[in-house]
């Protein structure tokens, strides 16, 4: 992500035209913004100057310069199209053609966006000055998702810049020392044996067909699917006559064919449905076939970035395992049913239970992967039709404590700013977040700022994951003690007089009581409780003091503890004491897990809040909704999707309606959950697949995927974005909003929504924070960050003038420390768990992708080298892990990412190896989030034959990246065969 700040206005001349630019703009940027497009091949707006191609040469004040990297000067005279300049541009393009076999008509990448093709056409190049010569390297198609053809590579370096300094995975480089340079992966190994994480950045920015998605090969054009030998013969014939007829007629045919492709390739904007970063992109399709995912520079959350899942993890949409017919339980089995029969049965059973036991006997769970509109309808169904507040979503399992901590202190339960603010910070503190794997695109912003901008990074976690290895300071506290070191550092800052006194005086309340509550949190106590030395904690305080602005990121390593809400509160307290709210580059950033876990809560799928976080306990709020919906809404909060399980056990909950949530395997204590679901009088599940939860259902309704419907999502930064229908719903499936409406209407609701925009219109009319949200303001890649005023003005940065409390002041919140669950003699090990880059949650979607499955075939447990030695374990051994709640069998991965007696299991498993067979019913007392991270276990080796390593040799964790800054173009310029074209 390239950030350009607004500079002073500069007047300059382009040819005979007097134009305006800005001081901090390059010549190329200024020309493009003024509608003057000159050839530029290596330049990309999201990468900045790379300086490898020389095609953007211009004359500025008599000197030939690269316009992509030369900044404007006041009064500069720019010649961009004289014969002299055009000949230099042609020379630069001719040199590139020496490396590229130009066969545009049969090229998989010829979609009108190839800058080399366009440069040849625009500069009217008729013949090649330097004949194409193949490079002595084979095509590398070892990666399951993309292919690299060195013979088509023009050595522009875009892929290297993207890998090194945008994604910052630091795998790619150009070996300029070879007789024929080429792009290499790590120390010149096949792609699939390198540290490449298959994020797709390189493929996205490649201007030609050197890097291509395998799903595009032979599919894009009318002639691209020809048999290889036939295609080559065609190319050879055309090349043989090219000197006589010139390239012009061939380019004309190519341009016609390129335009024809638009009739067969559909390009639709959508938003990723994996993590909460909210990456948006165009999806290229032919019918139901997905050709590629193409992020755009204007994608607001991600720009050109993707991860392996967002770029390549969409096979599940066309999986043969998709449900395509409603299912009704018939004894121990399911039978297929019509939609009418299934919906009638659902309505009949839910009505009977309401009539017999009351609406509070039913629990409604909205999907955190569904749309905002669907979450809104789910909570409306619960409240209007059934008169209950028993409605929730999966934020209860991960992010509710973070929301609670922010509600207590600053008033809004969302990120304080944008991802851009994280990039702008002087100091980032990341607590309990494996960001590079759980939120990889957001992590790229931190990695880039840390690498190139001097941003400082502190990481607190139990594992030495990638972000921990990159950190300037890594803290390894004892499990569940982050609240202690956070409070101790805050107290130390106060003791030293380093707090932001004016900020506290003018914008914060509760200071005296809060300071008193910190008295127990001395450095000595913190050192004993956390295991972190006083010296290290003092260094943390010093780094905070020296930073002009700071952000704190946190995730499930904080929230999934009994003290999740309190630790989240301690984070916000620290930010308030240091004045790190209300300015760009500051604030609190709880990183949301699911793609719409924020939005599902925002739009009212919560047991205590109506849409827009309006409390059900407020009679004025209730009356507003009751008048709009013509119903009565209870004032008492309902049961959430965690405590409802105890509600089943004690007979309060008799039925459940679950949309898109794998409750069995993502809830805590899977055995307990299965037992409770068995007790229900009626269970209806709406999903894409026959999930473990669906197997307990009485009726299963087949839902459409996100690509098959319209609506909106809200990402981790409160950004509302539209999704569009990429393809028609799979026959037999329906969008969730239509299914919910059909059920509501069978129960007398008389809803008449014809499109999700009408649902949003209603939600906006009832929720002040969405007052100005309208679909026309969200067209394409446009987005809005709530709160959105009625005039459509949104709020990228919160708390600039006041906090979300009646007096406008933030509230410092006193805390106490309650030690977490500790390991005992029988269960002597601590089991941590979390996400994995390649898979999402239990993998019910990502395992449908053969390429992803090849990278991580199954789950495993990470065991430290010391513990492995003590227990006689090696990678591939099978072990039994037992807690007081259950037991699993799993393969061992000996790893230095964990230490001592701490184990780590990723969530990517189902059935007998699912980690939640081991978790218990401990929970945060305020937010009711399960304490997934407080699990004591014992480990036993199972004798027998050792299995293969759980991470195959093709997994990127087995390789070592090779970091550098950019493409090191100076090495190209130093080559004997490089002839300089510039005169600067």
Mean pLDDT comes to 95
Cα gyration radius (Å):
29 Å
Summed up, the helix count is 32
Biggest beta-sheet profile: 7 strands, mixed
Distance between the termini: 28 Å
Helical percentage: 25-40%
Biggest sheet, strands in spatial order?
A: 14-13-27-26-25-15-16
- The helix/strand class is alpha/beta
- Describe the global form: globular
Low-confidence stretches: 1-5
Beta-strand content bin:
15-25%
Number of strands: 37
Describe the structure.
With 984 residues, the protein is of the alpha/beta class. 30% of the residues lie in helices and 16% in strands. It is built from 32 helices and 37 strands. It has a 7-stranded mixed sheet. A hairpin with a 2-residue loop joins β11 and β12 (289-294). α9 crosses α28 (736-746), α10 (372-385) packs across α29 (756-766) and α16 (482-495) packs across α20 (534-546). It starts with 8 loop residues before the first strand and ends in an 11-residue tail after the last helix. 56% of the residues are buried. Mean pLDDT is 95; it is low at 1-5.
């Amino acid at each position: 992500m390239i950030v350009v700040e607004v500079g002073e206005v500069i007047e300059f001349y382009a040819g005979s035209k007097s134009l305006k630019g800005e001081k901090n703009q390059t010549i190329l940027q200024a020309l493009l913004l003024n509608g003057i497009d000159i050839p530029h091949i290596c330049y990309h707006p999201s990468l900045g100057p790379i300086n490898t191609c020389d095609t953007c040469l211009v004359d500025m004040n008599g000197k030939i310069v690269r316009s992509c990297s030369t900044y404007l000067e006041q009064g500069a005279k720019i010649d961009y199209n004289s014969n002299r300049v055009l000949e230099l541009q042609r020379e630069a393009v001719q040199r590139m053609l020496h490396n590229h076999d130009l066969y545009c008509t049969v090229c998989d990448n010829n979609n009108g966006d190839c800058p080399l093709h366009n440069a040849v056409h625009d500069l009217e190049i008729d013949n090649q000055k330097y004949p194409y010569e193949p490079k002595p390297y084979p095509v590398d198609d070892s990666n399951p998702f993309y292919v690299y053809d060195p013979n088509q590579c023009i050595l522009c370096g875009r892929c290297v810049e993207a890998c090194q300094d945008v994604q910052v995975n630091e795998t790619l480089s150009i070996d300029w020392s070879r007789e024929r340079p080429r792009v290499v992966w790590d120390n010149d190994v096949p792609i699939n044996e390198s540290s490449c994480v298959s994020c797709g950045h390189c493929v996205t920015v490649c201007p030609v067909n050197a890097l291509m998605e395998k799903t595009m090969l032979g599919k894009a054009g009318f002639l691209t699917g020809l048999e290889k030998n036939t295609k080559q013969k065609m190319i050879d014939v055309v090349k043989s006559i090219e000197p006589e007829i010139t390239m012009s007629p061939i380019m004309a045919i190519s341009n016609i064919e390129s335009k024809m492709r638009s009739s067969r390739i559909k390009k639709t904007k959508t938003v990723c449905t994996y993590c909460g970063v909210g990456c948006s992109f165009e999806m290229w399709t032919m019918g139901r076939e997905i050709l590629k995912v193409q992020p755009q520079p204007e994608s607001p959350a991600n720009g050109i970035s993707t991860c392996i899942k967002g770029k390549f993890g969409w096979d599940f949409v066309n999986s043969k395992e998709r449900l395509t017919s409603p299912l009704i339980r018939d004894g121990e089995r399911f039978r297929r049913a019509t939609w009418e029969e299934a919906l009638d049965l659902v309505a009949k059973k839910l009505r009977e239970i309401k009539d017999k036991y009351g609406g509070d006997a039913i629990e409604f769970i909205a999907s955190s992967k569904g749309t905002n509109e669907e979450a809104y309808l789910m909570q409306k169904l619960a409240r209007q039709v059934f008169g209950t507040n028993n409605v929730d979503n999966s934020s209860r399992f991960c992010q509710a404590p973070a929301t609670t901590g922010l509600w207590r202190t600053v008033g809004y339960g969302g990120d304080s700013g944008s991802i851009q603010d994280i990039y702008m910070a002087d100091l980032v503190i990341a607590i309990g977040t494996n960001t590079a794997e759980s939120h990889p695109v957001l992590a790229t912003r931190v990695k880039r700022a840390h690498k190139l901008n001097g941003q400082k990074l502190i990481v607190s976690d139990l594992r030495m994951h990638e972000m921990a290895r990159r950190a300037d300071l890594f803290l390894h506290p004892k499990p569940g003690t982050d609240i202690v070191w956070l409070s101790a550092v805050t107290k130390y800052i106060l003791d030293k007089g380093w707090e932001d006194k004016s900020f506290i005086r003018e914008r914060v309340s509760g200071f005296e009581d809060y300071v008193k509550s910190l008295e127990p949190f001395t450095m000595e106590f913190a050192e004993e409780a956390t295991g972190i030395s006083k010296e290290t904690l003092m260094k943390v305080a010093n780094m905070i003091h020296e930073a002009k602005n700071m952000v704190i990121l946190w995730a499930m390593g904080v929230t999934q503890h009994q003290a999740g809400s309190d630790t989240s509160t301690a984070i916000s307290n620290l930010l308030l004491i240091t004045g790190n709210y209300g300015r760009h580059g500051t604030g609190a950033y709880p990183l949301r897990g699911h793609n719409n876990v924020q939005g599902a809560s925002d739009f009212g799928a919560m047991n205590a809040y109506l849409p827009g976080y309006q409390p059900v306990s407020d009679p004025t709020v209730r009356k507003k909704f009751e008048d709009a919906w013509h119903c009565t809404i209870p004032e008492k909060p309902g049961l959430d999707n965690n405590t409802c399980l105890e509600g089943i056990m004690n007979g309060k909950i008799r039925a459940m309606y679950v949309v898109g949530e794998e409750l069995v395997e993502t809830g805590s204590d899977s055995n307990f959950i299965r037992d409770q679901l068995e007790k229900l009088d009626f269970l209806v599940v709406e999903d894409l697949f026959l999930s473990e939860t669906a197997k307990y259902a009485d009726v299963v309704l087949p839902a459409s995927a996100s690509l098959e419907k319209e609506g909106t999502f809200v990402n981790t930064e409160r950004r509302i974005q539209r999704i569009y229908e990429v393809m028609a719903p799979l026959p037999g499936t329906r969008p969730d909003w239509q299914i919910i409406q059909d059920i509501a209407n069978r129960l007398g609701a008389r809803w008449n929504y014809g499109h999700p925009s009408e649902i949003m219109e209603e939600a906006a009319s009832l929720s002040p924070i969405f007052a100005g949200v309208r679909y026309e303001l969200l067209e394409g890649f446009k987005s809005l960050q709530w709160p959105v005023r009625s005039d459509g003005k949104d709020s990228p940065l919160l708390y600039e003038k006041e906090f979300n409390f009646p007096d406008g002041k933030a509230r410092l919140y006193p805390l106490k420390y309650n030690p977490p669950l500790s390991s005992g003699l029988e269960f002597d090990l601590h089991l941590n768990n979390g996400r994995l880059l390649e898979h999402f949650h239990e993998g019910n979607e990502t395992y449908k992708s053969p390429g992803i499955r090849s990278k991580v075939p199954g789950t495993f447990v990470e065991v430290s080298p010391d513990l492995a030695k003590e227990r006689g374990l090696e990678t591939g051994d099978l072990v039994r892990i037992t807690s007081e709640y259950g037991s699993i069998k799993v393969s061992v991965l000996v790893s230095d990412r964990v230490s001592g007696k701490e184990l780590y299991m990723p969530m990517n498993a189902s059935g007998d190896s699912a980690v939640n067979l081991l978790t218990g019913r401990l929970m945060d007392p305020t937010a009711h989030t399960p304490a997934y991270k407080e699990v004591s276990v014992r480990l036993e080796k199972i004798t027998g034959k050792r299995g293969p390593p759980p991470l195959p040799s093709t997994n990127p964790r087995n390789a070592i990246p090779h970091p550098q800054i950019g493409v090191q173009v100076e090495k190209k310029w130093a080559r004997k065969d490089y002839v300089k074209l510039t005169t600067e």
